[in-house]
Amino acid sequence: MKKRTARIDKNGYMSGKLFLGIRLPLNERWQRRWVIRILRNRGAHVEGNPTARADSLVRSREFFIEQLC
Fold first, then answer.
1. 16 compared with 38, residue with greater pLDDT
2. Which of 14, 35, 55, 60 is most buried, most CB within 10 Å of its CB?
3. Looking at the predicted structure, is the pLDDT value of residue 55 above 60?
């Protein structure tokens, strides 16, 4: 299985590494939509951890409440 990774650097810029080591910007919505249409496999494909997912949802909600309120 090939890995396709997205990165966000310290300045908040997002990019994704596709084929042949080419890294494309993913900052704008149109860029993400274009890349997603190119890729057939997307999303999580290896296992899942329901406990970790539930915990991350709780923590992210708490984080946003703390930061935005």
1. 16
2. 35
3. yes
Please report how many Cα atoms fall inside a 13 Å half-sphere around the Cα of residue 24, on the Cβ side: 16
User: CA dihedral defined by 63, 4, 33, 24, rounded to 10 degrees?
Assistant: 100
Q: Which of 20, 16, 22 is closest to 42 using CA atoms?
A: 16
DSSP 7: E
Strand partners, 8: 14
**Threshold 0.70, pTM exceeds:** no
Number of compact structural domains in the chain: 1
For residues 5 and 19, the answer to whether their CB atoms sit within 8 Å is no
Q: Domain limits at 39?
A: 5-68
- How many CA atoms, within 13 angstroms, populate the side-chain half-sphere of residue 67? 6
